Amino acid sequence: MKYLKHIKWAVLFGILAAPSVWAQGGAHTMVTPGDLKWADVPSLPPGAKVAVIEGPLNEAVPFTFRLKFPADYKIPAHWHPAIEHATVISGTVNFGIGDKFDAAKTKPLSAGSVVIMQPKTNHFVWTKEESIVQIHGVGPWGVTYVNPADDPRKK
Ligand SMILES: [Cu+2]
């Protein structure tokens, strides 16, 4: 009986010790905004933060993450290998399609807006205020800049 009790606690602690954020595909997940763990994003210009909710992003599994952009932020033209489903959570994110950054070609997307971008579509983004966008899709995920000189990983 005592032995069983120990097993119960071991199982319970095992569950609690598992990360509440960054679920593997198939796991039941409930995440509140306070659970999110924000980190730097090496593939984006400095200032952005990422919180991975589901992943990992570099494998062929479903992923969900949020990006927090500071005010007056700009991402040069780039593409992704997978479909990008982007939902604006807060602020306003200006999205544009094309090979070269052009603020005149962007559309302001307020909280609640959705973008579905096909793989390898060149696009760019800017913000005037701090904004959060949630991206989901099926990996592997990545960022490739149209102009390799724009890639902060190469700087
Ligand atoms: Cu993008």
Name its key features.
155 residues, mainly beta, seven-stranded mixed beta sheet, five-stranded antiparallel beta sheet, binds copper (II) ion
Structure characterization notes:
The protein has 155 residues and is mainly β. Helices cover 10% and strands 41% of the residues. It is built from one helix and twelve strands. Strands 1, 2, 3, 4, 6, 9 and 11 form a seven-stranded mixed beta sheet that branches. A five-stranded antiparallel beta sheet has the order 8-7-10-5-12, with no helix packed on it. Residues 6-20 have low confidence and may be disordered. Bound molecules: copper (II) ion. Copper (II) ion binds at residues 78, 80, 84, 123. Copper (II) ion is lined by residues 78, 80, 84, 123.
Tell me the layout of helices and strands.
Layout: H1 2-17, E1 23-24, E2 39-40, E3 49-55, E4 62-69, E5 73-79, E6 84-90, E7 92-97, E8 106-110, E9 114-117, E10 123-127, E11 131-138, E12 144-145
Parallel strand pairs: 1-3
Antiparallel strand pairs: 2-3, 3-4, 4-11, 5-10, 5-12, 6-9, 6-11, 7-8, 7-10
The chain binds copper (II) ion (CU).
The site of copper (II) ion has 4 residues, from loops.
